[in-house]
Amino acid sequence: MIQSLQVDAVLHALSDPTRRAVFERVARSELNVSELTRESGVTQGAVSQHLKLLKQAGLVAERPQGRRVFYRARPEGLAPLFDWLSHYDAFWRERFVDLRVLLKEIDP
What we know:
This protein is an alpha+beta fold. Helix content is 67%, strand content 13%.
């Protein structure tokens, strides 16, 4: 059940295009809210709300430095999503093997 809640949180956090863009930017380099607001097309308050949700989902960590707070991606926050997707890896592998066999039967 906990795993399901973690997957839900990660999927929800990444479901919004603005949040995905924020996550992608902090995945490239550590940035503060002001830097993230530039070129984002949304207000600083909106960026802060997106960061809050990303942090709650475990995708972003913060590092205070003086009066500023810098944000960086937490790649390990994606682990619940990878674990969930790996479950379907076996499903697709089996289907591709079946397809390969079928294609060989059709065109030996």
